[in-house]
Amino acid sequence: VLYNCIDIATIQANQLDRSEARNKLNIPRDAFVFGNIHRLDKSKGHDYMIRAFAKSSEAMPAAIAVIIGGGDRKSLLEGIAEECGVADRVILAGVVHNASWYTNAFDVYVAPSLHEGFGLGLLEGMAASLPILTSTGGATPEVAGDAGFSFPPGDSDTLAEHMKTVYLMNNSERTQMGQSSLQRLQENFSRETYHNNVVQLFAS
């Protein structure tokens, strides 16, 4: 298997700092942000991400959920947030140009896809040294490995527990978790790793 890759150095160089990214997305400066970047497609699992956030919200008073991406499910997801009583704590930011520049606005990257072929958004979250919460849908387990916490696709109860766990960690624990995701990215999905694997394949 030849895995896809991202240009880690370029993505990191283009990332806005935390304050600027939050200002541009209208995110409160002191909020704890569970973020996702993906089009608003049913397969991406945003509905149960919102339901999981709602289930854990009482234990996370400073937390909000932010989803960057466009699609025709925005009104549906807004309705779910309203139904769950967290409409004022869920931001559907819509289409954002160069969305990968904004990952520093997040504290945790959530990848709730029901099925994912690879997941470049997840890699962009890892490039920002974010703790990651990932479903086991499709190829995501191969990407995330043992970095972060995983949950079955559509399982809002388990995702809610993982959200609470990461929220209640101290800063040092979250930093260590984020460093693990960055290390996995650098070791497995850099341009250099991809290039070396292709060369070795042809050489063999």
The radius of gyration over CA amounts to 16 Å
How many helical stretches? 9
* Helical content class: 40-55%
Residue runs with pLDDT of under 50 for 5 or more positions: none
First-to-last CA distance: 14 Å
- The number of E-state strands comes to 6
Biggest β-sheet: count, sense, barrel? 6 strands, parallel
- Range of strand content: 5-15%
Numbering strands along the chain, what is their spatial order in the largest sheet?
3-2-1-4-5-6
Assembly type of the shown chains? single chain
Quote the average pLDDT: 96
- Assign an overall shape: globular
List the helices and strands and how they pair.
Elements: H1 8-14, H2 18-25, E1 32-37, H3 46-56, E2 63-68, H4 74-83, E3 90-94, E4 108-111, H5 120-127, E5 132-135, H6 140-144, E6 149-151, H7 156-168, H8 171-188, H9 191-203
Parallel strand pairs: 1-2, 1-4, 2-3, 4-5, 5-6
Helix pairs in contact: 3-4, 3-7
